[in-house]
Q: What sequence folds into this?
């Protein structure tokens, strides 16, 4: 077939436009549906945004947003198209602009370190911080993220720490049964590389308006209730309003191995922990776990370590050891998912959407990909893959 | 306010005000900044140049001395060559030994209650309280006791003490070196790998080193 010069020109134009579009597709876009936070082999950090986790291959260095590690880390909060991070005494808001994270607003938050965050609807964020000098003074911030201003700031006077346990860890916060309930515990520093946690979980019930403490409850069935939820999820509400959380006494959070990792519950119309409910995960798996995500219908996925595979905290993150289990919360049943061993201590590696659990795994064959677990059929398929520049996929979040 | 070596030292010792801290961190991130040239006036420059020239010139103007040879001198010449070779060889050996000593740098903060900052040609080093280090950058031998931060100024291979294990350290990256008090094992983590440690350990490191 002979083409007329004008047709040839139009065809060429079409190709140029097509290449132009597809190369624009290569970069991260603010309207993409998902965000992945990656720790690269080159020691940099990258955020990749995608519209689908179901398939595709991403070249993280070409398509991702490079983040300076002096400024950002994986505790970044990702919500409704924006990114939030505390750095240099300010809580800052960022948006994606020209393939970079660009700061658009900041709030002074001197000498603070975020232990826990909690979204109240689309635009209100509750932050619980401790001071970065003594790690013992607890502050509460209620922030309007749209106007980016502090609506309320209160100091929460927790009872004094038991002797020798000088620092406090906030494991969860939840607005539940018209109260604000905080799960927390106390830690003891032994030396520069060793520490432990007291053998008790503490729960403070507060007035959500005044932040005055109404009561403190204790439970010694485990310790370290929850964990730092800007890094990994440890709690949720079910469909009818029961609140579940996991305790994390293993070496990556509490380091008190006399206690089991377990799932506990605060029932819908109660403000105290259910004394008769406990799923002892350590008894079921002979190991400790960190991370729990709700998949609906009274079931959750947990991420569990393998003590026979790592030596101590020095190789805990680099060892291919993490397994994923499905937990039936009302039947006390724990079933291992058929997935390769994952690496990386404490990762936000599960995203649940439309009947599927998207699980990011960095496996021993240097594959960095999403495994799609169909919650109903229990079938597992491969999804989006990242290239070999990836070392750890430490977060998967819904961006929009 | 300008970022200079004093401010950077202050920063690493955790003595900066929040403004100073911001300034240093922005300076670290920003690679578009222009640096002013050395603050030397033209007069000083000419003075330094002429001083250097004065030192060099006598060696250049000196003409070589030519001497006539005789038989005795010829014999003497062989002896002299042999002696020179011996001297050169001896000097070479002794110099080599000196080099080895020089490249083994020893840092001691064993009695210090605060961290201590060192700026060397090939790396910056911040020793934590009561920490000591012995470093040979050429061989990668790195003995450490306590907790420290190293920021290499060139790529080098880190040899873990007492093992054959090695790790490539990258120019400009910040590394934390810890010694497990329980196993005695050396642990080396890059800035972002630090987030894998338990929060309580991370907090202790944040208190000691202000650059996390």
A:
């Amino acid at each position: 077939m002979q083409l007329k010069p004008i047709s040839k020109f139009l065809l060429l134009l079409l190709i140029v436009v097509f290449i132009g579009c597809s190369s624009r597709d290569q970069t991260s876009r603010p309207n993409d549906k998902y965000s992945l936070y990656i720790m690269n082999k080159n020691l940099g950090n990258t955020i990749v945004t995608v519209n689908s986790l179901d398939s595709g291959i991403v070249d993280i260095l070409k398509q991702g947003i490079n983040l300076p590690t002096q400024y950002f880390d994986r505790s970044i909060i990702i919500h409704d198209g924006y990114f939030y991070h505390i750095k240099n005494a300010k809580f800052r808001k960022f948006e994606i602009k020209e393939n970079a994270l660009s700061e658009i607003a900041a709030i002074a938050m001197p000498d603070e370190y975020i232990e826990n965050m909690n979204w109240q609807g689309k635009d209100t964020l509750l932050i619980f911080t401790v001071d970065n000098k003594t790690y013992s003074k607890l502050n509460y911030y209620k922030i309007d993220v749209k106007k980016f201003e502090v609506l309320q700031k209160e100091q929460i006077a927790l009872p004094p720490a038991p002797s020798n346990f000088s620092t406090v860890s906030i494991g969860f916060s939840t607005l539940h049964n018209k109260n604000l309930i905080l799960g927390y515990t106390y830690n003891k520093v032994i030396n520069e590389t060793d520490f432990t946690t007291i053998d008790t979980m503490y729960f403070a019930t507060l007035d959500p308006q005044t932040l005055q403490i109404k009561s403190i409850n204790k439970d010694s069935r485990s310790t370290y209730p929850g964990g730092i939820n800007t890094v990994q999820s440890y709690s949720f509400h079910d469909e009818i309003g029961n609140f579940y959380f996991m305790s994390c006494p293993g070496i990556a959070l509490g380091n008190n191995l006399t206690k089991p990792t377990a799932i506990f519950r605060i029932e819908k119309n109660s403000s105290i922990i259910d004394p008769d409910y406990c799923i002892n995960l350590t008894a079921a798996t002979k190991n400790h776990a960190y991370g729990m995500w709700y998949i609906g219908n009274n079931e959750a996925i947990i991420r569990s370590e393998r003590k026979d595979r790592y030596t101590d905290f020095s190789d805990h993150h680099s060892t291919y050891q993490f397994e994923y289990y499905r937990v039936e919360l009302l039947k006390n049943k724990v079933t291992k998912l058929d997935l390769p061993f994952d690496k990386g201590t404490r990762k936000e590696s599960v995203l649940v959407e439309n009947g599927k659990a998207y699980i990011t795994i960095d496996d021993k064959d240097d594959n960095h990909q999403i495994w799609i677990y169909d919650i109903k059929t229990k079938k597992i398929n491969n999804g989006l893959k990242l290239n070999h520049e990836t070392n750890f996929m430490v977060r998967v979040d819904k961006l929009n | 306010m300008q970022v200079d070596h004093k401010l950077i030292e202050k920063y690493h010792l955790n003595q900066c005000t929040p403004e100073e801290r911001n300034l240093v961190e922005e300076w670290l991130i920003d690679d578009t900044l222009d640096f002013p040239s050395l603050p030397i006036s033209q007069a000083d420059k000419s003075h330094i140049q002429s001083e250097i020239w004065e030192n060099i010139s006598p060696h250049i103007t000196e003409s070589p001395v030519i001497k006539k040879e005789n038989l005795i001198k010829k014999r003497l010449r062989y002896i002299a060559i042999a002696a020179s070779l011996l001297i050169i060889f001896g000097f070479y050996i002794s110099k080599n030994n000196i080099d080895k000593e020089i490249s083994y740098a020893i840092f001691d903060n064993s009695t210090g209650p605060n961290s201590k900052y060192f700026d060397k040609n090939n790396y910056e080093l911040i020793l934590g309280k009561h920490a000591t280090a012995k470093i040979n950058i050429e061989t990668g031998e790195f003995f450490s006791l306590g907790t420290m931060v190293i920021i290499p100024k060139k790529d080098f291979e880190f040899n873990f003490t007492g093992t054959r294990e090695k790790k490539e350290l990258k120019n400009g990256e910040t590394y934390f070196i810890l010694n497990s008090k329980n196993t005695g094992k050396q642990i080396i983590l890059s800035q972002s790998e630090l987030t894998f440690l338990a929060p309580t350990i991370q907090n202790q490191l944040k208190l000691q080193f202000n650059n996390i």
